[in-house]
Write a structure and sequence with these properties.
By secondary structure, the chain is an alpha+beta fold. The chain has 2 domains: 98 residues; 186 residues, no CATH class. Helix content is 63%, strand content 11%. The strands form 2 sheets. It has a 4-stranded antiparallel sheet, with helices on both faces. It has a 3-stranded antiparallel sheet with strand order 1-2-3. β5 and β6 form a beta hairpin. α3 packs antiparallel against α5, α7 runs antiparallel to α8 and α7 runs parallel beside α11. The longest helix has 33 residues. The protein is globular, with a radius of gyration of 22 Å. The two termini are 33 Å apart.
């Protein structure tokens, strides 16, 4: 995993790496443990945090399987010291990265799918142009797109879009692309199970048509969700955004990721989290497992 992805994980996790704490007599009641532990798990693989992560995972906060636990003040103090050490180290990593690679508030980092030929790379850039540049032009969003740099040693590119609203729009499209992948995966699981039951060809043909219909209707619905605040919405804009959702979903299936450079909370929340990128992969595993039964 490259440094850009580590930075994205840290930025996604840090604002939510908190416990709810309440003093109850001479005890400290801690709640929200499940959510905290899920965020903690996302930091796996980030260099420099291994010792503190292991320390938390060996303790009762991680291992009791409870969302609320009461600790003595001394016990909680030790746990909190480790949590603060994780936050301090993570912030130090961010500071180092920011110093060596200044943030552009209007930029996103894109991890390209793994490609092995120039023809494949050309196809990827064509899809990116259609799903980002053409969409920004079609929707009339203020932008000034420029490709600035790629991270050495990996297939990452930095794309400045020229405005925060353009970055937010692409983030929303990326989120809807993940929703689309998940819904489509569920439909494919149902189709796969019916095929295993050896239903007749007419039913299978009907299922196939319904899957195509779902594909088209879902991308259009997700597109309209993104554009819901626009009056007098033109169908050409809806279709272009729907096409972007579909295209970015396909790129994600091949391993692409879209990460905002900005620390602005509203922009960070407009994009999928590191954890959300893994969910469609889990759905794909279900499809593959169902086909092996």
């Amino acid at each position: 995993m490259k440094s850009i992805e580590h930075i994205f994980i840290i930025r996604s996790v840090l604002p939510f790496l908190n416990l709810n704490v309440q003093n109850v007599g001479n005890k400290v009641r801690v709640t929200g443990i499940f959510a905290f532990n899920r965020k903690l798990n996302e930091l796996e693989g980030v260099p420099g945090l291994r010792e503190e992560l292991d320390k938390i995972k060996r303790g009762s906060l991680y291992n009791q399987g409870l969302d609320a636990i009461e600790f003595t003040e001394n016990s909680f103090l030790k746990i909190n010291e480790t949590i603060e050490a994780i936050k301090n180290k993570a912030n130090a990593i961010l500071d180092f990265f920011d110093a060596s690679s200044p943030i552009q508030e209007d930029a996103i980092d894109i991890r390209l799918p793994d490609v092995t030929t120039f023809s494949e790379m050309e196809a990827v850039f064509k899809d990116l142009k259609t799903s980002i540049e053409v969409t920004l032009n079609t929707t009339g969003v203020d932008h000034n797109l420029k490709i600035f740099s790629a991270e050495p040693g990996s297939i990452w590119i930095k794309v400045a879009l020229g405005s925060k609203i353009a970055v937010s729009l692409i983030g929303e499209i990326c989120k809807k692309a993940l929703d689309f992948r998940k819904e489509l995966a569920n439909a494919k699981i149902t189709e796969q199970r019916l095929r295993m039951l050896k239903v007749n060809n007419d039913i299978l043909e009907s299922i196939g048509k319904n899957t195509v219909k779902l594909h088209n209707e879902l991308t259009e619905k997700l597109s309209k969700d993104i554009l819901s605040d626009r009056p007098n919405l033109e169908q050409a804009i809806v279709k272009q955004v729907a096409y972007s959702i579909d295209t970015i979903a396909q790129l994600m299936e091949l391993g692409a990721k879209f990460l905002p450079e900005s620390k602005d909370k509203s922009i960070v929340e407009a994009f999928p989290t590191h954890e959300q990128y893994r969910i469609p992969m889990q759905e794909q595993n279900k499809i593959e497992n169902s086909s092996e039964l």
